[in-house]
């Protein structure tokens, strides 16, 4: 079992701001504070605000922290910073154990406490509550799993007519299988987090999956979750920023790429993702509010990708795109 370097926090500091200030705050605090004493995070609310959250092992110096936040943003944001005391318990595990399993197509994301409740017709994905940075309950993760399940259904329908057809050949005509005989899906999960999407692909396809994340701790957590899900032989997880690593190029082209992140990095990665995708390969994107979807579609269109389907799940948009053959 992987022991988290930062146990349950006793103090949480939070502030609501805009995207630019949130990024500046995280950058400055990441360079200034001891990463062994604090865990930082930022996420976007449906109303467009960004919440910066700082989880401390011990009581922080509130005045010094406000001064750092003011240095990164402004005095008003610094004064809006709030501090809450948290009981010294395993509050993450306690809260997650009360969550119901998440259903998304044939997939069921659950904790260890629901392991025995996964029905035979479902593909169970277990995320250990004490290790989780993401549990599958968010609409972006559910949207990606539902989109993936839809691709699997379409693949199964086509393979009933042409059994050796690979995932990327969902649009191929009958009679064109011979030139693709033996090909099997090759999957990439960008920003893998807890590894939910990578594990779903590994379990459904029984094929190697490459997952990457910019956060080293997330990669450690995902590796532990891979062990729990018995997919360690299929899933390779690497810590890297962007898609410039030679490991991506050596594993490319990818028939299926997941990228469940946010609009800004999705746009920044549109060209690299387009270059790594196989001809006629599918890309499933999420982390998008409805107002952001068209911007993402436009960015990926310039990378040679066309929209196949748009879904809205719990207020978040998931896009399924296809790379043109030519």
Task: Describe this entry's structure for a reader.
With 326 residues, the protein is α/β, with parallel strands linked by helices. Helix content is 33%, strand content 26%. It contains eleven helices and 14 strands. It has helices at residues 19-32, 62-72, 75-79, 91-96, 139-159, 196-205, 216-228, 246-251, 263-268, 270-276, 293-301, and strands spanning 11-17, 38-44, 50-56, 82-85, 102-104, 107-110, 123-126, 187-190, 209-213, 235-239, 254-260, 277-288, 305-313, 316-323. The strands form three sheets. A seven-stranded mixed beta sheet has the order 10-9-8-11-12-14-13, sandwiched between helices. A four-stranded antiparallel beta sheet has the order 2-3-1-4. Strand 9, helix 7 and strand 10 form a beta-alpha-beta unit. The N and C termini lie far apart (47 Å).
Q: What's the layout of helices and strands?
A:
Layout (H helix, E strand, L loop, with lengths): L10 E7 L1 H14 L5 E7 L5 E7 L5 H11 L2 H5 L2 E4 L5 H6 L5 E3 L2 E4 L12 E4 L12 H21 L27 E4 L5 H10 L3 E5 L2 H13 L6 E5 L6 H6 L2 E7 L2 H6 L1 H7 E12 L4 H9 L3 E9 L2 E8 L3
Parallel strand pairs: 6-7, 8-9, 8-11, 9-10, 11-12
Antiparallel strand pairs: 1-3, 1-4, 2-3, 5-6, 12-14, 13-14
Strand content: 25-35%
Number of domains: 2
Largest sheet: 7 strands, mixed
In helices, the fraction of residues equals 25-40%
Query: How many beta strands in the DSSP annotation?
Result: 14
Q: Give the structural class.
A: alpha/beta
Radius of gyration: 21 Å
* CATH structural class of the largest domain: Alpha Beta
Q: How do the strands line up in the largest sheet?
A: 10-9-8-11-12-14-13
Shape: globular
Helices and strands, in order, run as EHEEHHEHEEEHEHEHEHEHHEHEE
Ranges where pLDDT stays below 50 over 5 or more residues in a row are 1-9, 161-183
How far apart, in Å, are the first and last alpha carbons?
A: 47 Å
CATH homologous superfamily annotation of the largest domain: Vaccinia Virus protein VP39
